[in-house]
Amino acid sequence: MISFKQLPIEAKAAVAAGVVFFSMMLSRSYLAEKLDFRMRRWLLRLQMALFVNTLMLMGSLHVWRSTVTTFTRSSAASSFCFMLWKIAVLVFLALAHSSFFTLLFLVAEEPYLFSLAAYTCLGAYIILIFFLFTLGSVEQAYKFLAGRGAKAGTGNKNRTAMKPVLAVLLTVVLTVVGLLNASQPPTVNSVEIPVHKLPSTMNNLKVVLLSDIHLGPTVGKTKLAMIVRMVKALKPDITVIVGDLTDAEAKVIRPAVEPLGDLHSPLGTYFVTGNHEYYTSDVSNWFELLKSFNIQPLHNENVKIVSPASTSDWFCLAGVDDIEADVLRYSGHGMDLKKALRGCSSEHAIVLLAHQPIAAKWALQERPDVNLILSGHTHGGQIFPLNAGAYLLNPFFVGLYKVGQNTFVYVSPGTMYYGIPMRLGSRAEITEIILRSP
């Protein structure tokens, strides 16, 4: 029987990842009630950082072998430039691995340069792994089609050497493009949506949708102030924030949140939790902070949005907690659609705020009379090649969907980005939704 010491290092990393994951499950099941919020928060984040890093170790070994070990037998291996290259690859991998620890130590009013560098390397790491795998697969397919009997020669060696070079060049180009794309202000996307049973006095009501701002290691006060200025310029009747506003505790990042105090919509500004709010383990403090800025959290509850032209005309605006609260066993929280829609009848239009598209799907299965659901979460995949995974994992990906006869779902691609300050194959968005009365 093979002992643990005899296992290849990739297998050891996989075992370590399994151990960390098992400890996370035990912590959620048996320690949740025994630890205070602060200790639970640190433990969860530390476990998550360790879990991701053990998984990344397998990819990092492949990157090192492809970009360094492959060339150790070449004539350039003893050169000073090759030594610099090895140091550069090592620093690159170290920064990528350290990105997940910045949530524990480097969150402030504005992003630290180290955090931006670490998350940029993480984005480049994902792209590089993809191209190394893809080009490696193409190489193996070529060898298979060329025939197993083909002799290894200079041509094969050149192709093997070209694979990491091409992967690195593509990664550098796409990283620069992704950084430039994400550095631009969010685009304003105007969408007209017919809402069944919306009173005629509320025709052309303007709702501005924000989602996935992710205040934390790489998004700070300057970015949020820019978003608030853009929202104010649109002059919305209602502003809604559908989750993942933050990745940090309210006390730590409070100065960065101050621009939200300048949001003034005549019919109110509303907020529902996303999965990342529950990762902070600080939802109650976030609710209190948002209320101090006149932003109303909809914690499985609803409000009547009354027409300025007639007090007898109104529609129901409801919000549900994110479904991750149930997974984390977050006390007093979790998606409760019945509670959220209590008092909302099909006689009036119903608009629901639900962070994850899967929650939107579940809500429509239970209450098909909901007329409009506003979600986020997917980021449009944020960067290539994650777009495909996000598309496959969510019932609604990005944009407007019609479900049934009188129901629409709109999924925002996010107003900023999570961690990695890059956008590839997606664009940050502030959505201006014009509600139309049929």
From TrEMBL:
SUPFAM superfamilies: Metallo-dependent phosphatases. Pfam families: Metallophos. The keyword Membrane applies. Signal peptide: none annotated. The chain crosses the membrane at residues 12-30, 42-64, 84-106, 112-135, 165-183. One of its GO terms (molecular function) is hydrolase activity. It comes from the Eukaryota. This is TMPPE metallophosphoesterase. Residues 205-380 form the Calcineurin-like phosphoesterase domain. Keywords: Membrane, Transmembrane, Transmembrane helix.
